[in-house]
Each structure stands twice: as C-alpha cells, then as structure tokens.
C-alpha cells in the first residue's frame, strides 16, 4: 500500500507540473491563431501581395515599394499589405487618394503612436508625429504664427529674396572654374530661411556648428536604411506601445541607440535656442514677437491651455520638438527639389533656354525676383510644376493612422489601420499626364500660354495633414530657381574622362539624364527621392 500511495503521489505531482505547460501551450496556440487571423487577408479585402502568419507581407514586397505597387498593382486603386499584424492600406490612384485624404479628412488625420518619443524624452510633441488635440493646437498656432511673419505675404518673401541674392553672390565670387557642391550651398540658404523664421537669425551661415546640425537633420530624411528600419518597426508599434517594458527593451536595440543619440543631439540644439530666447524675455513678455520661439513663449504666457491630463499644453520641451520638425520637414525637401530642378534643366536644354528667355524678357539679367513675377513667368511656373511632378519627392507620402472605420474604393477600412499613398504613380497616370515620363511644361499651359496649376499634383499631400509649409516651400522654390536661372548658366563638373580628352565624351544632357535615370536605392521605403550628389560649374550670364 505504501507503493500504491507513492505511485499516486508521483501521478499527482506529474499532473501539477504538466498543468502550466498545458496552459502556456494552449495560450501560445490561441495567440498564434489570433495573430494568424490578423495577418491573413479576407475575401472582402483589397488585393494583397501576400502575407505570412505573424510577420505579415515583408517577404512579398519588392523594392522600392512605389515601383512595385505601380507595376504589380497598376489597375488597383487600393492595395492592402501587412506590417506584422498591422494593416497598411496603400492608395494607388488619385481617385482613392482623394476619397481617403479629402472626403475622409478627419478620419485620416491620425499619425502613428508617440509612445517611443514619450519614453525617451518624457514628453510628446512636434508637428509631424502627433495627432489629436495636441497636434491641432500646435498646427493652428504654427500656421498662424508663420502667417504673421508673412508666410505667403511679404515678410518671408523678403527674407527669401535676400537669401537668394546672397547665394548668387557666393556662387559668382567662387568663379566659373570652381565646381560647387549644390547640396551644400542650397542647403545652407534654405536652412537660413527657416532659421530666420524660427530663431530670428541666419544661424546656418553664422554658427560654425550648423553644418554638423544640418548633416544630422539630413540623416533622418536621407538615410534609407534608417527609414527601412523605421518602417519595419511600424509593424509591431501598436502592440509594443501598449506594453511599456517591451517598448523600453526595443529602444535598447543597438540600431535604435544611434538614432536616439542623433535625435537627442538635435533636440538639445533646439532646446538651447529656446532657453537663450527665454533668458532674454522681458518680465512682461515680448510686446511683439520677432520669431517663432518668441511667439511661442508669448503664447505660453498669455494662454494657459492644458492637455487631457491638466498639464500645460504649450511647453518649452514641445517647442523644441516643433522646431525640430520644422527643420526636418522643411530643409531637405526644398533643397532636394531645387537639385532636381537644376538637373532637369541640364537634361532638357530646350526648356532651360525658354525659361531663361522668359525671365530675361520680363525681369532682365539682374532684377530682384519677387512673388509678383509669378504672374508674368508662365512657362517658368509650368517648368517648376513639371519638376515636382516627376520628382514626386515624398514618394509614399507620410504614414497616416485611420482614426475611425471608413470606406475607400468600395472597401471597408477599420480604425487603427495605417495608410500611405503612391505619389510617384499618381503623378504618372497616363490619362492625366500623357507621355508621363516626358518632361513637358506645356501640359500646364492653356491655349494662350497661361499657366494653369493641375489639381492632380499632390506633392504636398492633401486634407488635414497636408504640408504645413506649402506656401513657404512654393515661395522658396520660385525665388531660388528663378534667381539662379536668371544669373547663371551651369554645367556638370568636368569629369576626368572629358577633361583629359580621352575616353568617350558625353554631353551635358546625357550625363544629366543618367543622374535622373539613377534607380532609387535598393531599399523598400524611400522617404525622399534623392538624386546622387553632384557638383556644378556656374558661369555668370
Ligand atoms: C518642396 C518642399 C516640400 C515638400 C515637397 C513637402 C511635402 C510634404 C508632404 C508630402 C507632407 C506629408 C503630407 C501627408 O502627411 O500626407 C508634408 C508634411 C509636412 N510638411 Fe512639408 N513639404 C515641403 C516643404 C516644407 C516646408 C518648407 C516646411 C516648413 C516650414 C514643411 C513642413 C511640413 C510639416 C510640419 C508637415 C507635417 C504636417 C502635419 O502632419 O500636420 N514642409 N510635407
């Protein structure tokens, strides 16, 4: 009987030990089943390239994403793919883009969670990544403030004109024998414009450290490896953001540490500028704000707005983050579009000479360029529009979070899905832009040669999250481009082969076209379509 009791005891112990294994196993099976269901397209869903359980569609997406979508899903308005368990809807036609971004603007005003930022710096904020009331208040304040400084009116225009003159003088002083890194000089001028609006000074030229700052800014928008990692991280953000310890663990990954270091370096710089302004603020506050920081500090003093938790909504920390976003969103985009414009002029010498002829006829060789000249320079305006169509700079748009169930292209889109759009393909729709790959400014001219903007160009997005800096960007593009075309002829740096007289001599248009044909990097997601770096030799006209 002792043996029997011993057997019974052993049996009970085995059962007790087995129980957790069975429980964990069943929970694992249930979780797997749940995640499997989440990553499986349903019959009622839009076309999907394919999806694996749990990890989603990564294995089926080809690079770069916008080309893959243009070729494989040419006839589909909407495509669905899975980033892990997260549904990403990709708008692949203008009709679908409009229906989502314009007709459902409110539901499309969400962005991806700010949880990682909150954990890192103890606060959320900024203009690009936030949503809800915080974003609404900051966007309203920023638009209002930039408008007060003359965005779309004379203030910013004057500042851009002076910067364009500085830029032209610098190029002229360097002489025609020196090849100039266009990215560097244009980047400095464009940054100076934002510096003046935000900091009230031309920091990009005056602060020797600024070049390092600019490099760090560019790293965020220009490094496709960083963007691709970010894209993958999007997959599990909705899950990890609900589990703080997991998120903390993810932020410790070696890849993340480099990004965090750079972001903190930039934030520190913005914060120092805020502190310096705050130290100068009179006790009664600024009577008239001279820049964005002063306007914010004044606003903080006068309006005690609070967030959902009863804490101050406008804070110094959030101001630093908003500044960071203005730089991230506003420098590389404008500089790169200008670089595309100059290369398109070399690739299309007939267009370039018509642009120069029009500018000379209306402004002469030296006259200062202002926005009123737009009304006279129809062909030039059309040329800039065509550059932006073909560049399709922010080629997949920025990611939106859908905040409520909606319907697009006949499909139901559940709340909390993500959405992107194929700017590249929408700009190459042959029904709207016949011979889409040809550079033809004439498509925006009416029968009397007057410029007519196309409603189908979406380089600045649309709806509630459309580019906040559109007017500023348009002003910069026009004034910088016209000033350079008015003053200079330019050519690509003489390469070794043509300088030595040996090898094949390749003309400028062919070399420029080769730069334009440069296939986008072997990366899934490019935030900004960059051209390879190039140098130009400028000759004064
Ligand atoms: C040629 C230059 C530019 C282009 C092509 C461009 C394009 C865009 C695009 C496509 C978006 C995303 C829209 C969406 O989410 O669907 C965007 C957002 C934004 N842009 Fe620009 N942009 C340019 C210049 C600027 C400038 C100069 C500024 C700053 C003064 C700026 C500030 C912003 C901000 C703050 C956002 C986020 C808006 C929000 O989420 O509410 N951009 N831009």
Automatic annotation (TrEMBL):
Its cofactor is heme. PANTHER family: CYTOCHROME P450 306A1, CYTOCHROME P450 508A4-RELATED. Pfam families: p450. GO terms for biological process: organic acid metabolic process; xenobiotic metabolic process. Heme binds at residue 467. GO terms for cellular component: cytoplasm. The chain crosses the membrane at residues 12-36. InterPro entries: Cyt_P450, Cyt_P450_CS, Cyt_P450_E_grp-I, Cyt_P450_sf, Cytochrome_P450_fam2. Belongs to the cytochrome P450 family. GO terms for molecular function: heme binding; iron ion binding; oxidoreductase activity, acting on paired donors, with incorporation or reduction of molecular oxygen, reduced flavin or flavoprotein as one donor, and incorporation of one atom of oxygen; steroid hydroxylase activity. Signal peptide: none annotated. This is Cytochrome. It comes from Macrostomum lignano. Keywords: Heme, Iron, Membrane, Metal-binding, Monooxygenase, Oxidoreductase, Transmembrane, Transmembrane helix. It comes from the Eukaryota.
């Amino acid at each position: 009987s002792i043996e029997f009791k011993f057997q019974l005891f052993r049996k009970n112990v085995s059962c007790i030990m087995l129980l957790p294994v069975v429980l964990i196993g069943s929970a694992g099976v249930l979780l797997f089943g749940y995640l499997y269901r989440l990553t499986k397209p349903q019959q009622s869903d839009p076309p999907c390239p394919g999806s694996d359980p749990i990890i989603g569609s990564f294995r089926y997406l080809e690079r770069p994403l916008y080309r893959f979508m243009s070729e494989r899903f040419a006839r589909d308005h909407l495509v669905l793919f899975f980033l892990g368990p997260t549904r990403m809807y990709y708008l692949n036609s203008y009709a679908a883009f409009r229906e989502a971004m314009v007709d459902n603007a409110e539901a499309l005003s969400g962005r991806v969670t700010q949880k990682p930022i909150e954990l890192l710096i103890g606060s959320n904020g900024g203009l690009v990544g936030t949503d809800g009331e915080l974003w609404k208040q900051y966007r309203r304040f920023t638009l209002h403030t930039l408008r007060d400084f003359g965005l779309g009116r004379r203030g910013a225009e004057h500042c851009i004109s002076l910067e364009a003159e500085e830029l032209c003088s610098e190029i002229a002083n360097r002489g025609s024998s020196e090849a100039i890194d266009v990215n560097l000089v244009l980047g400095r001028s464009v940054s100076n414009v934002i510096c003046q609006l935000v900091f009230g000074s031309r920091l990009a030229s005056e602060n020797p450290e600024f070049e390092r700052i600019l490099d760090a800014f560019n790293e965020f928008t220009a490094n496709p490896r960083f963007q691709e990692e970010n894209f993958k991280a999007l997959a599990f953000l909705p899950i990890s953001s609900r589990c703080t310890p997991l998120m903390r663990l993810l932020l410790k990954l070696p890849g993340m540490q480099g990004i965090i270091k750079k972001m903190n370096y930039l934030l520190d710089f913005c914060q120092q500028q805020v502190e310096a302004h705050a130290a100068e603020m009179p006790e009664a506050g600024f009577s008239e704000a001279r820049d964005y920081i002063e306007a914010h500090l004044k606003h903080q003093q006068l309006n005690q707005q609070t967030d959902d938790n009863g804490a101050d909504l406008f804070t110094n920390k959030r101001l630093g983050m908003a500044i960071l976003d203005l730089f991230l969103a506003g420098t590389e985009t404008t500089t790169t579009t200008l670089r595309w414009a100059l290369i398109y002029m070399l690739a299309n010498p007939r267009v370039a000479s018509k642009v120069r002829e029009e500018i000379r006829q209306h402004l002469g060789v030296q006259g200062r360029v202002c926005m009123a000249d737009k009304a006279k320079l129809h062909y030039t305006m059309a040329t800039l529009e065509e550059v932006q169509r073909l560049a399709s700079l922010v080629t997949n748009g920025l990611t939106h979070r859908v905040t409520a169930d909606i319907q697009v292209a006949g499909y139901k889109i559940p709340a909390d899905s993500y959405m992107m759009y194929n700017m590249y393909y929408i700009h190459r729709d042959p029904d709207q832009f016949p011979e889409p790959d040809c550079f033809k400014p004439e498509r925006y001219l009416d029968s009397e040669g007057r410029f007519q903007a196309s409603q189908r160009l979406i380089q600045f997005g649309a709806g509630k999250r459309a580019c906040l800096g559109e007017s500023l960007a348009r002003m910069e593009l026009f004034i910088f481009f016209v000033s350079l075309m008015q003053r200079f002829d330019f050519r690509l740096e003489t390469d070794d082969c043509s300088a030595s007289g040996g090898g094949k001599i390749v003309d400028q248009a062919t070399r420029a076209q080769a730069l334009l044909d440069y296939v986008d990097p072997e990366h899934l997601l490019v935030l900004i379509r960059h051209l390879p770096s190039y140098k130009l030799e400028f000759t004064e006209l």
